[in-house]
């Protein structure tokens, strides 16, 4: 999913007990920002935007304690944006993730069945 200047890539997972329900990866390429100061600023903005909007994911996952989701936020622009703009984009991506039904019980069941097939395949070897 893309909401310029961001791309979000995600995968649903079966959560093992010590792992958090949502894991976040933030990537800002040196291709876009040569100076570490600029890359760090963008990463700070993304972390703060996620912190302010993560309740959207946790509300959707509240009734599914065994489901988790791994999310990668990838910066796609060579210009700096103000924090309000970044926050709006992160919020729109998280809302789209929630609305697409990715975090529904049906997706949890499909992840569980895939995991069972993987385990069965390993045991057969």
Question: What this model shows, in words?
Answer:
- With 125 residues, the protein is of the alpha+beta class.
- It has one domain (2-124): Ribosomal Protein S5, domain 2, CATH 3.30.230.
- It is 50% helix and 21% strand.
- It has four helices and four strands.
- It has helices spanning 36-53, 55-61, 83-99, 105-124, and strands at 2-3, 6-14, 22-27, 67-75.
- Strands 1-2-4-3 form a four-stranded mixed β-sheet.
- Helix 1 crosses helix 3 (83-99).
- The longest helix has 20 residues, at 105-124.
- It is globular and about 50 Å long.
- The relative contact order is 0.24.
Secondary-structure topology with pairs:
Blueprint: E1 2-3, E2 6-14, E3 22-27, H1 36-53, H2 55-61, E4 67-75, H3 83-99, H4 105-124
Parallel strand pairs: 3-4
Antiparallel strand pairs: 1-2, 2-4
Helix pairs in contact: 1-3
Would you tell me the overall average pLDDT? 86
H and E string = EEEHHEHH
Low-confidence stretches are: none
Spatial order of the strands forming the largest sheet: 1-2-4-3
**Whole-number count of domains:** 1
CATH class assignment = Alpha Beta
CATH architecture: 2-Layer Sandwich
Q: How many beta-strand segments?
A: 4
Helix content: 40-55%
Q: What fraction of the residues are assigned to beta strands by DSSP? A: 15-25%
Structural class: alpha+beta
What CATH calls the topology is Ribosomal Protein S5, domain 2
Query: What spatial form do the alpha-carbon principal axes imply?
Result: globular
Largest sheet: 4 strands, mixed
Q: Determine Rg (CA atoms, Å).
A: 17 Å
Terminal Cα span: 37 Å
């Amino acid at each position: 999913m893309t909401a310029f200047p961001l791309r979000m890539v995600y995968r649903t997972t079966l959560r093992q007990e010590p792992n958090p329900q949502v894991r976040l990866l933030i990537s800002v390429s040196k291709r876009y920002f040569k100076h570490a100061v600029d890359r760090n600023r963008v990463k700070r903005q993304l972390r703060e935007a996620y912190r302010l909007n993560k309740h959207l994911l946790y509300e959707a996952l509240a009734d599914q304690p065994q489901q988790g989701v791994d999310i990668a936020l990838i910066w796609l622009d060579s210009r700096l944006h103000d924090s309000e703009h970044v926050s709006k984009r992160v919020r729109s991506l998280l809302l789209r993730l929630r609305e697409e039904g990715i975090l529904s019980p049906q997706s949890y069941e499909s992840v569980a069945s895939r995991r069972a097939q993987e385990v069965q395949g390993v045991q057969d070897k």
